[in-house]
Structure formats: C-alpha cells, structure tokens
Q: What sequence folds into this?
C-alpha cells in the first residue's frame, strides 16, 4: 500500500482538540482509499517552551525533515510573546523547508453563513496564493537613536527575482487548472514605489508564458474593497507575504468561513515537507472546553492528502464537509449548533 | 466676515465634474453661515503634464502655501504613470505640507446600501486615522543585480518616533471627543518584527497619557476580517500609512460608501494648508458624462469647513447629505437613481 509519513504537531490551545479529529478523519480516508499513514507525534508548544526554554528541541527541524508532510494545529499562547512562539516554531518551518507558497481556499460552503447579503456558494470560490518566505516579513532592519527624539526603526521589504518568480509561476499554474483561468495580482505600486513595481514587472513577464490565463491587477486598498463588494470577480489571487496574509483572512471572512478555513504551506518541488494548518489560532478563550470547530483542521487534512497525491480521498473529505453543512449535520456553537468538537469529527469520519 | 483662502484643484477626470458641485455647496454654506471663501483655481492635471512635462509648475507648492486649505478633485489618468501623476502632485502636497494625518470617516448613511446583511447606520460609524508621510511609503530602497537571477529589490519601511507619536496623539485626541472613547491600533508585530513592535511600543506609551480612552489592537489580517464581521466594534482606528490606506478603503466598502467617502489630509498644527479630497479616483470610464456622484467631494468640503472652524456649516452640509439619502432625493446611477452630477449638487446646495 502507499505510505505517507506525517509529522503531527497539535501545538497550543484548541490545536490539541482539533488535531485528534483531523487524524480521525484522515484515518477513515486511509482505510477507505487504501493507503497508510505513518504518524510521528510531537508535543512542541508553548508548554514545551515553559519547560525547556525552546518551542522545539534543537534537532526539531531535522526530525520533521524525515516526514512527507506536517500536520499542525495552532501555535501561540498568552504569556509567550509571538516572537518566541511563532518565530520559534511556525516561521522556521515555513522558511527552512522553503514552503514558499501559502495556499488558502476561500469558499462559501452551502449552509455556511456569510456576513454579506445575497451571496450564493457559486459566487464565492477562489484561492489566495501567498508568497511565504520573503517580502515584508524580513529579518533586515533595526533601530537607531534609541530612546531619543531622533529615534527611528526600519524594516526592509525584500523581493528577489527567484522568490517572486516561483510563487507567480505556481499561481499561473494553478489558474490553468481552473475553469475560468483567471489570475489577479495584488499590488500597491502607486504608493510603494520600489518593490511593488518590481512585482508588477515580474507578473507581466510571467504572464507572457501563460497566454491562456486572463490577468488583472488591483492595488491592495481597492482590492480589499472588491473582496467585499465583488467576491464573484475572483478565481486565483496572488500576493506578497503581507498582502497575501491580509487577503487570506479577508477572503474567508467574506465567505463566512474564517473559523473553518484551511491553509497549506507548500514546497511545490517536494524537496522538503509541506505543512497543513487551519487559519484559526489557538483560541485561548474556548480552549479546554471541547466546543471548538474541527472543520478547519479536517479541511487542512484534505489539502494535505491532495498534496500527497490522494486526490480521491481529499475530495471525499471535502464532500463530507459540504454535506454536513448543507444537510444540517452536527454543528459547533460558532455555526449556531451545540455539538462538541468530537461529534463533528466523528460525523465526518463516518461520512468518509 | 471670516475669510478662508481655498486653493481649488479639480485635477483629472470626474474631478472636473465633482469640484464645481463641491464649490456650489460650499458657497451656499458660506452665504448661510456668514463667512467668505477666497478661491484660487489651479488647473493642474495630467493635461498640464502632457503640455508642460510637469503636473504642476515649479512654484506650484509655493502658490498653494498661501491658502488655508486645498480642495482637490482627483489625480490620475490612463497613459500617465502613477509615479508621474501622483508623485508629481498628490504625494508632494501631502509631504511638503506635512499633512501627517489622513482622516477618513466610515459611516453607513441612512438610505445607503451596504454589501453586508442586516447592518443599521448606528452600527457602522467610525473613523480611520492614517499616518500620511512615512512608514511603508518610503523613498529609501533600490535594486541590485538587475537583470540576473540574483536580482532583488528592497524598500525600507521607516517609522520615526516623531512621525509615530504625532499621529497616535491625534488619534487619541480624536477618540477623546467621541462618546465611546475607543481607539483600535492596527499592527502586524507577529510577522513584521522590527517596525510593528515599535508601533505597538509607542502606542502603549501614548495610551498612558489617555487613561480614559479604551484601547485594543489587532493584527491587520484579522482586523480586516473584523471590519467585515464586526464593523460595530470600531470607533477610531489608527494605522500606519499602508495599513491606514487599506482600512480606509475597506471601511467605506463595508459601509457601502466607497463612491461617496471623503478624506482629509491634515496638518493639525495648521502650520501648512490641509487638503480635502474624495476617496474615489478620476474614474475614466464615466468621466465626461456628468453622471458621477458628487457626494464624496461635497462631504470632503464639509470636512474642510470643520477644519477651518466652521463647524455649524459642516454639520449643515452633512445633514443635507443624510436627508437627501434618507428621503429619496436625487441620486446618481451608482446609488440606483438616474440624476446627473449637477442635480445632486443643486439639491444639496438648496438644502444647505
Ligand atoms: C493614489 C494612492 C497613492 C493613494 C495612497 O495610497 O495614498 C490613494 O490610494 C489614497 O488612499 O489616497
Ligand atoms: C501568526 C502569523 C505570523 C501568521 C502570518 O502572518 O504569517 C498568521 O497570520 C498566518 O497567516 O499564518
């Protein structure tokens, strides 16, 4: 049978509750579609940090390197600053494994509630492709004249040809697989006049290689407005690290799916493991109550299976989620029901 | 009588249609409230650029310097690149006159249509305060290894203590004038780890001076999501140049007012003239047809009068806009009517 090695990191807060349900559904899919999952469990989290002073052991990345994919819950907990928790676990995984594509579907699922008036599922169905290793998230910068009136801080946004071209290529390739074949680029070249015109230049260059793809571009300010006013305009949207971050929260918000949206951190060449995690965080306010919604985790599992070549299994999970929402299956509180985390996981595992 | 010197720059496209209506209403307000407006007209635009190679004459800024305020239509036209049109007129005015606050109200007006379901006017009524001179819109950066595989481009975001503190102070002062006294800061200190933690640090420092103001902060990604999901949470929102730019398009989009939203570029100390302009652009697709909506321009005029100390006149204009929308007065096409630009201007001038 086909075997896939999965590193499992529940992380913090509700990650500990959603990951078991994600695994439950993955396991059901493995049995039905005839593949095997080798799981390696890692309890790295803010608790690990409290005990050891590190979010993961020194050889943490080496251990992960042996897996085909990483299945992550959530990272972060009150009391541990983000630069420790995120920059000690999430960000190094993205960077060291060169997961240069962050892919997030934005879909209005049947039966889900969008804050927008009068929108149907067919009208909100697009992907955000985010650059995930460079751009505005840079480690170059600093502070001068600290503590005086002249104090200033800088941070360099860095856009490399290699970094920009490869994520654009991924986005064009993805657009080619979609019926509408449309790609929108997020820019701000009218205000940010070095890096963004460069992004536009590379986008125009790459577009020449894909004559079948219909392209357009908007400045990020009006693009955000269009997400709210015209979500039906979009098919695939590509943006820098920061712009992609913004759009991939706004898109799910518009689709009413921010609590259940999945995300994939992909190394498309499969030289390194890719990582799959829900968009939501560790949710300290509801953690420990087993009332959180596991759908984001389970949907992330479907994206993982698709990446591993198990397309039929991925489709089956997605269909189970759609059916559950459309047919009034068990729902957690955030979706107006009163089911527990485990109820939803079990219902989906059974459906698969 | 009180006299105010106004420099008038219609600029490009529909700016030439909205500015006359803005002036019509300002004139009505002046007569009713007993002040005088000295107008100086400047036809600087992309046409000027075509004729002279410059967006404005060399002594353009000096001429503007003599006015109390600048009343601007729109800048930009197809065929003239943004770095010429915007950086030859709009951006230098903002910077040279140290208009370090960009203030934009986000209000759901009675009778206006929001894309959100079930929102009432009382629920969407907040201000975005945007830093307008530094931050991500920087002139520091460049390109290296051009034309090779090693090519990269950088742009430094620059946050100075002076620049950050003064816009934060403005935002806290504004929050103090509002019944809810609430201020939200836009950050991204979990990803942009030099400049954004500095912004947070200065925000926390300034907050100590305003114990009555309730503060919170969100990362820009989830903040954009909250604008869509919970616009009622916000009272005053402060952000950097880029974040403020994004939020002040998203806010009006959520309120259904992007076609009519005003903006003020303010030098709070009144050492230099401030500038008032609608959020919309020059709209080449409908320019020349006299069907565009002048409300953004007229509302910008109201903000200008408030800045000039004519609060009663400003309130009268705003009330006229509210009444026109609520009572089904003449509407342009974008609001579902078939009135012309001039019809709306005349109706508002009469109401004032
Ligand atoms: C035209 C552009 C440079 C400008 C900006 O980003 O400042 C515009 O979007 C605005 O918000 O006034
Ligand atoms: C937690 C944070 C650093 C992260 C990011 O901005 O990349 C998150 O918002 C995300 O989108 O995965």
A:
């Amino acid at each position: 049978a086909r075997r896939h090695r999965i590193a499992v990191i529940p992380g913090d807060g509700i990650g500990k509750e959603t990951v078991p349900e994600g695994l439950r559904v993955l396991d059901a899919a493995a049995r039905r579609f005839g593949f095997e999952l080798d799981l390696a469990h890692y309890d790295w989290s803010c608790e690990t940090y409290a005990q050891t002073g590190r979010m993961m052991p020194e050889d943490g990345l080496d251990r992960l390197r042996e897996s085909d994919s990483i299945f992550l819950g959530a990272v972060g907990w009150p009391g541990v600053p983000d630069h420790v928790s995120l920059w000690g676990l999430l960000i190094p995984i993205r960077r060291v494994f060169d997961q240069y594509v962050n892919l997030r579907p934005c879909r209005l699922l049947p039966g889900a509630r969008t804050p927008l008036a009068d929108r149907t599922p067919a009208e909100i169905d697009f992907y955000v492709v985010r650059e995930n290793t460079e751009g505005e998230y840079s480690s170059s910068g600093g502070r001068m004249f600290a503590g005086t009136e002249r104090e200033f801080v800088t941070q360099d946004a860095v856009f490399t040809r290699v970094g920009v071209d490869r994520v654009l290529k991924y986005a064009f390739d993805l657009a080619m697989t979609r019926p509408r074949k449309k790609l929108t680029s997020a820019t701000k070249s009218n205000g940010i006049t070095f890096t963004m015109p460069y992004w536009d230049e590379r986008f125009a260059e790459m577009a020449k290689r894909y004559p079948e793809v219909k392209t357009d571009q908007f400045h990020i300010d009006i693009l955000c407005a269009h997400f709210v006013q015209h979500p039906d305009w979009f098919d695939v949207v590509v943006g820098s690290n920061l712009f992609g971050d913004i759009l991939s929260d706004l898109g799910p918000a518009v689709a009413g799916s921010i609590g259940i949206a999945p995300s994939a951190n992909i190394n498309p060449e499969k030289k390194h493991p890719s990582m799959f995690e829900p968009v939501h965080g560790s949710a300290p306010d509801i953690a420990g109550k087993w009332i959180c919604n596991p759908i984001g985790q389970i949907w992330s599992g479907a994206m993982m299976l698709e990446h591993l070549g198990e397309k039929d299994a991925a489709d089956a999970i997605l269909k189970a989620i759609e059916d559950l929402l459309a047919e009034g299956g068990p729902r957690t509180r955030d979706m107006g029901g009163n089911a527990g985390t485990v109820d939803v996981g079990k219902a989906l595992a059974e459906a698969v």
In short: Residues A 86, 245; B 190-191, 221 surround 3-isopropylmalic acid (ligand 2) (CB under 6 Å). Chain A has two domains: 1-104+279-352, 114-255.
